[in-house]
Design goal:
The protein is mainly α. It contains 16 helices and 5 strands.
């Protein structure tokens, strides 16, 4: 790597012989020679490797792995890579709260829970580090749809408002580019879709958890809803001659994630994330959904800790499927 200001820290780890090391932020700063960025004191994701985070390369490229991060006490624990598999009592810190990665769940499915938490933290760091981050478009959209669900009925103004939110969220999430038929439509193209979402037959799908989505009636209703939404959009697209492709699963799953929160968005990076980590099939359908539910079930304790903490911090009840969306989208991004 281009070491830059972290050259001294990189050299320190290259010469280190200890198997375990606990280092305070102050000690690290004394080695580097400058104070760490404010982000290092606030966001766990700053400490995880990425294209823009150079600090973690100092230990990662010298055979060490960060096994504990405590922002409250301002200290980090490092362990040699060949020792990490022997340790089943690792605490990964989310702000000031320990999230324990239990030995049982860490061995299940295709990606360890500590790697999933790392991916979640990276995604969450990007979301929190910019008050106008495009990923926040999901929050804005999801919140208004959840609030509308509590109304006895929706009038025309309500539906227009929801349609406008859905349109912007989809635009922010890349659905108004390239050959998308939505480029040729105004925001009201979603009105019939919104009316379909609020039909009583789909009531159980709103913010559904993995236990309920496993039930045959609910997963069948989800597949029915997917088919209905595709039919509605096909009718809206019929006079757009330039577009010949069918309504994509990407569009439908993004709509469902941003409104009901009942399924992750099956876009390129999410599919790559679940595929490369052997979680489930990349093609959207019952089989793929059941694979996701199995992963959540196997890692329920750890994923629920993440979900409850982010829900409290964001003042919005994040659905379980959104947590999976964040994790596997980030894992897919990391492997692009």
């Amino acid at each position: 790597m281009s070491k830059g200001k972290f050259e001294n820290l990189h050299r320190y780890f290259s010469q280190l012989r200890e198997d375990n090391l606990t280092m305070t932020f102050e000690e690290m700063e004394s080695i580097i020679g400058v104070r760490l960025k404010k982000s290092a004191y606030k966001y766990p994701a700053y400490w995880y490797d990425s294209k823009t985070h150079m600090l973690p390369k100092c230990w990662n490229q010298n055979g060490y792995k960060m096994e504990g991060l405590n922002l409250k006490e301002r200290k980090v624990i490092f362990v040699k890579n060949d020792l990490t598999d022997k340790n089943n009592n690792i605490d990964i810190m989310r702000n000031n709260t320990p999230i324990s990665t239990m030995g049982e769940s860490r061995k299940q499915a295709g990606v360890t829970i500590d790697k999933a938490i790392e991916a979640f933290n990276k995604y969450y760091y990007d979301l929190e580090s910019d008050e106008n981050a495009r990923y926040l478009s999901w929050e804005h959209c999801y919140k208004v749809f959840q609030d509308a669900k509590n109304k006895e009925s929706l009038n025309e103004d309500d539906i227009n408002y929801l349609s406008l939110h859905l349109a912007f969220y989809l635009a922010s999430w890349g659905m108004l580019r390239g050959s998308s038929f939505l480029l040729q439509k105004d925001y009201k193209v979603h009105i019939d879709v919104i009316k379909e979402l609020y039909k009583p037959i789909y009531n159980n799908l709103w913010g559904i958890d993995y236990k309920d989505l496993e039930k045959k009636q609910n997963i069948d209703n989800l597949i029915i809803l997917v088919g209905r939404l595709k039919t509605i959009y096909r009718k809206k697209r019929i006079n757009v001659k330039e577009v010949t492709t069918d309504i994509s699963d990407i569009l439908i799953t993004k709509v469902l994630l941003g409104t009901m929160g009942c399924i992750p968005a099956y876009d390129e990076y999410f599919k790559k994330g679940v595929g490369k980590n052997n979680i489930t099939t990349q093609r959207f359908g019952k089989s793929s959904i059941l694979g996701l539910l199995k992963y959540y079930k196997l890692n329920n304790k750890d994923l629920e800790m993440l979900r409850k903490k982010v829900s409290k911090e964001r003042d919005l009840e994040y659905p379980q499927m959104k947590i999976l969306d964040m994790i596997f989208f980030q894992l897919g991004m990391d492997n692009k």
